[in-house]
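task queued by scheduler; priority normal; single chain, no ligands, no partner chains; default sampling; output format set to C-alpha cells
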Amino acid sequence: MAQMFLQTYLMTSNPPEESIVPVETPPSPTTWGSEPGGQMTFFEHLVELRKRIITSLIAVGIGAGVGWFVAPYFIEWLTKPMLKALADKHLTQQLVYTNPTGYLSLLIALSIYLGLVLASPVVLYQFWLFVAPALYKHERSATTGFLFSTVFLFLTGIGFGYFMMLPKVLKFLISFQGPVVPLISINEYFDLTLMVLLGAGLIFELPILIFFLTLFGIVTPKFLFVNSKYSILVIAIIAAIVTPTPDALTMLVVMAPMIVLYFAGIGVSALVVGRRNRRLAAAAEAH
C-alpha cells in the first residue's frame, strides 16, 4: 500500500530526473544465479504427495508380483553360501522349514523385499518429481547425483556382504559342531542373511552421511582428517556390533571397507566445502 502511494505521488509531482535517486533492491540471500523453485499451496502439496505415494505403492505391488515368480530362484541363489559352508564341513547340504507355513511365509516376505528393490527406481523418481518443483536448478542436479550415489553405494554394500562377509560368517558359525549336527531352518537363515546384507548396505552409505554432515556445517574435511584415529576406533566398535560373529577376521573384513569409505567421505567433504567457498566468492564478487 505504501509503495502504491509513493508511485502515485511521483507520477503527480513530476520531480526532475536529477532529483530522483534510484533505489537498488538488495539481492535475495537464497538466489544462486538460477531460476527460483516452484511455489505450491499446502493443499496442492498434499494432492501431489498423494499422487506420488499411490504411484509408488502401485510400483511396489507390481514389483512384488514379479518377485513372487522369481522368489524360488532367488532363494536358490541365496542358499548357495550356506550349502557351501555345510559342504566344506562334510555335513548334509540341506535347509529345512519347521512349520507348515514356513516356506510360504518366506516366499511372501521375499516377494515384498524384491518388490521394494525392483520398484526402487520408480519410488526414487516419484520422490524426485515431488521435490523437484521446489528446488533450484543446481539443487536438482545435486539431488539426482545424491539419489544415484545412494542406490549405487547400497547395492555395492549388498554385493560386498554376499560375496565377502556372509561366507566368512557362515564358515565361523558352522565350525562349532560339537556332538550334534546342525539342522538349519531356512527362515532363520534368511533372517541372518537379511541382517548381514542390509548391514553391509547401510555401512556403505558412510560417504552420504559425511556429505550431509558437511552440508549442514557440522563437520569439515580438516576436522575429519585430524580426528581420523578416533573415527577408526568408532569404526572398530561399530564393526564389532554389526558383525554377528565374535571372530577378529570377520570384524576386520567389515572394518576395511568402512575405513576406505571414511577417507572417501573426507574427499566428498572437501568437494562440498570447496564448492561452497567458490559459490560464496562468486557471490561476493557479483555484489
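post-processing summary
- The radius of gyration is 28 Å.
- Residues 1-37 have pLDDT under 50 and may be disordered.
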